[in-house]
Amino acid sequence: MSIDVSGVSKRYGDFVALDNINLTLPTGQLTALLGPSGGGKTTLLRIIAGLETPDGGSVVIEGNDATRLPVQKRNVGFVFQHYAAFKHLSVARNVAFGLEIRKRSKADVKAKVEELLALVHLSQFADRLPSQLSGGQRQRMALARALAIEPTVLLLDEPFGALDAKVRKELRDWLRRLHDEVHVTTVFVTHDQEEALEVADEIVVINEGRVEQVGTPDQLYDQPANDFVMGFLGEVTTVGDVRVRPHDVEVAVAPGVPGAVTGTVRRMLRIGFEVRISVATEGDAPDVTVVMTRTHARQLELAEGTRVWLTPAAGATTMAAARDAVPA
Amino acid sequence: MAERHRYPKGPTTYVLRALVVAYLALLVAWPVALVVTNTFEHGDEALRTILEDPDMQAALRLTAVAAVVATAINTVFGVSVSLLLVRNQFPGKRALSALLDLPLSVSPIVVGLALVLVYGGRNGWFGPSLEESGFQVIFSTPGIIMATAFVSLPLVIREVVPVLQELGTEQEQAAQSLGASGWQTFWRITLPSIKWAVIYGVVLTLARSLGEFGAVKVVSGNILGETRTATLAVEEKYLNFDQEGAYAIAFLLASVSVLAILVVFVLRSREARR
């Protein structure tokens, strides 16, 4: 019951950013708000933080109604996509900021800052200015700064969005381990489904200002509530009247499979160990995409022009395709 | 800076350089240097005469007071208006922004006359009522300060606004999420971030205020030892064929401005080396 959002709405002029959001995020978990850009997830995070006021509804943090509380009084740690480092202060002074505002004793501040810098592996950079750090280091500093005030909840807005792919992956693992260490209720916003699936205990999928589904990564991946969630968490293709993931399509090179869709291999594209195959089916249905390993494709002796019979694999996540739906 | 990339230099480069140097020398360096040499033509005698003359002391003091007070007002006002312009949306914002440039485009003489129309003791808008309650504006120090503040009004704003825009609001939001009040955020985050813009604005304002002539001439009344500022004294001496005295005061005024710019330059480069 750590964070309770009920009936929250927000409009910017004619644009509905959030439409009657109801959500409960349990204490101590790492939750991802996942969705496409402009879907409202950052607005929701900023409303929880108090950086934005909702048009209606309420936000309750650890049993206290925070709806009317200004950001200063909510005791939330907020981490921005572009770090928001205090450029004129050293790394140590950045981390100390919240403690100095709270008028802690010099010795307390010093001890806490040292502890946090050790936690984020920046001890040797304490006296540097933020401009002398790399992006990843700056974001770790921002995280230490947010953790310094011992926040009730830690909120991260696309925290790795401005970093390059490799650093991003490192920080992602690191955030997971850090959360296992400090156990503060954490909510982060991302548009990267892989990031959400890998890091979060729970994922909230938000699209067009509404919550599409809430669940663990496994639940979302295996039992998507609707087409949108299925499409957003991974690639989807349509075999006959069934929506299925491309790697869950069984390919036979001889007829005789009941319910199979007949088609011809139109194109094969090899990416590393994978082969992506486009299969043209009868009628005006769009091509079916199939993904299999290189070895498997070779075993089947597939080539452009081969006739194939396609079925969804047994046990695969499937969903009835809406006839007029355009695949994402 | 050792590995700074150098462009190949053709004849155009040298011609342009010569032009720039010649232009600056003829327009700025040479005339200013002549003021200095004329001041010290008979050693420091001219300077000493000026500094020992009680009327000139009063003039210099008045100029200093007017410039410092006007600069202080314009600094506080300028930073507040800059924050208002950058951080808030309100109807008439563009009109206000345009209005703030007016003091730079209007002739200082017009400024002086306008102030007399409003605050003039005999037939200004509310000058007479102010004067009845014992507060004289025109032909007195408040008028001089007002005229000086008017002409140097946009200088701080024009320095601070672009820096504030560039800065954005994320650092301030971060400070607030860490518990800082609006006032704490301003002193600890916003002001240090715009520090150099404010300092440049202050130096420009101070330099402009020290040198103001036209507007002050209209509102001051030019009473010797009372409302005669240093710039007015320069004109007076010059017209009375005391050229050496005129040059000496001009030299003093110019040195203060040069000194201010030098101080900023030194501070800045020390900061950059950190």
Low-pLDDT runs of chain A: 324-328
Q: Provide the structure class of chain B.
A: mainly alpha
Q: What portion of residues of chain A belong to β-strands?
A: 25-35%
The CATH superfamily of chain B appears as: MetI-like
Spell out the helices and strands of chain B N to C.
HHHHHHHHHHHHHH
CATH topology of chain B: MetI-like fold
**C-alpha geometry of chain B:** globular
The Cα radius of gyration of chain B reads: 23 Å
Instruction: State the end-to-end CA separation of chain B.
Output: 15 Å
The biggest beta sheet of chain A is recorded as: 6 strands, mixed
Number of strands of chain A: 18
Rg of chain A, nearest Å: 24 Å
- Please estimate the helix content of chain A: 25-40%
Query: What percentage of residues of chain B falls in helices of 4 or more residues?
Result: over 70%
Low-confidence stretches of chain B: none
What distance lies between the first and last C-alpha atoms of chain A, to the nearest angstrom?
Answer: 35 Å
